[in-house]
Design brief:
Strand content: 15-25%
Radius of gyration: 23 Å
Largest sheet: 6 strands, mixed
Helix content: 25-40%
Number of helices: 12
Distance between the termini: 44 Å
Structural class: alpha/beta
Shape: elongated
Strand order of the largest sheet: 6-7-8-3-9-10
Length: 317
């Protein structure tokens, strides 16, 4: 499956994947990697310019109408009318899906209770918090009881409590039999929810497997070293004698250690002999971030972390 925009910009460059029925599949990657474009193709909102795709057995181009009847979609930027109430919006979705009025009312009431919005149901959506809007959008996507659910970065920008509330609902939906395809830029989210993870970078699927299997591919823990007063470049030269250097993260020097904890003491002695003071050490077991670095050559930083760094950089100028 491919998608090229004007100017020969390849947003999706040959993604080939298969999601099993009843699975939670997480599409993991940074902003601009091609996650949302892939979702828009799979949900019939965008035509592929190459290859083909099928959802629930239906071709996304030739059988787009059948695909839409089968899926629920909650996009990153929900188009929720701020002047309507939560109850009105869900009932409208029920009507658009052709449900009889009584059935639509019944499902709307049940979904509002499911996502804990009963007390806010008759308030205008413009008064809702970000987490409440995401839960309402999720409820709207479920009104016709779809067997396949697409979630495009469902927790981006949410606080930790709201994020875990969404996670719990996704897990319950899956336990009830819903197949879930979600995109995310959060390593923890993919690790927590997904049966399998696909890592996408610059429009290409660079790796795919269960979170455990992906981490097992890396195999070795890495040491994070924070120095007291600079000298990162010199420290990288020193630690390279003991293992594979990794890209720096948040000012910390990283090195993969095949011997794990047994190699820590020699690294510390070598840094001391080089005149480099160590402020803190942390031996970290393989994570999805290590997998991402190994597959792409760089760390995965959520959008809000990138924005925070931009602010810090501008304030320091």
């Amino acid at each position: 499956m491919e998608r090229t925009f004007s100017g020969d910009v390849r947003a999706v460059a040959g993604v080939d994947l298969e999601v099993a029925e009843g699975e939670i599949y997480a599409f993991l990657g940074p902003n601009g990697a091609g996650k949302t474009t892939t979702v828009r193709i799979l949900t019939t909102l965008l035509r592929p310019t190459g290859g083909s795709a099928r959802v629930a057995g239906f071709d996304v181009v030739a059988e787009a109408g059948k695909v839409r009847q089968t899926i629920g979609v909650a996009l990153q930027e929900a188009a929720l009318d701020p002047l309507m109430t939560g109850r009105e919006l869900i009932r409208l979705q029920a009507t658009l899906h052709g449900l009889p009025r009584d059935e639509g009312r019944r499902r709307s009431a049940a979904l509002l209770e499911r996502v804990d919005l009963v007390e806010a149901a008759d308030r205008q959506v413009g008064t809702y918090s970000g987490g409440m809007r995401r839960r309402l959008d999720l409820a709207s996507a479920l009104v016709h009881e779809p067997p396949v659910l697409f979630l495009d970065e469902p927790t981006t920008g949410l606080d930790p409590v709201s994020r875990k509330t969404i996670w719990a609902e996704v897990e319950q939906l899956n336990a009830d039999g819903t197949t879930v395809f979600l995109t995310t830029q959060y390593l923890e989210e993919a690790d927590q929810l997904a049966d399998r993870v696909g890592i996408i970078d610059f429009g290409k699927l660079v790796s795919e497997d269960t979170p455990r299997a992906l981490k097992a591919q890396i195999g070795h823990p890495h040491l994070e070293i924070r120095l007291t007063d600079g000298g990162a470049e010199r420290a990288e030269e020193v630690v390279a004698r003991f293992g594979k250097p990794l890209p720096m993260r948040d000012g910390a020097v990283l090195v993969e250690l095949e011997r794990g904890a047994g190699a820590v003491a020699p690294v510390v002695r070598a840094l001391d002999e080089a005149g480099l003071g160590v402020e803190a050490l942390d031996l970290v077991e393989p994570s999805l971030d290590d997998v991402f670095v190994a597959k792409t050559g760089h760390h995965l930083e959520p959008e809000e972390q990138q924005e925070a760094k931009s602010v810090d950089d501008s304030e320091s100028e």
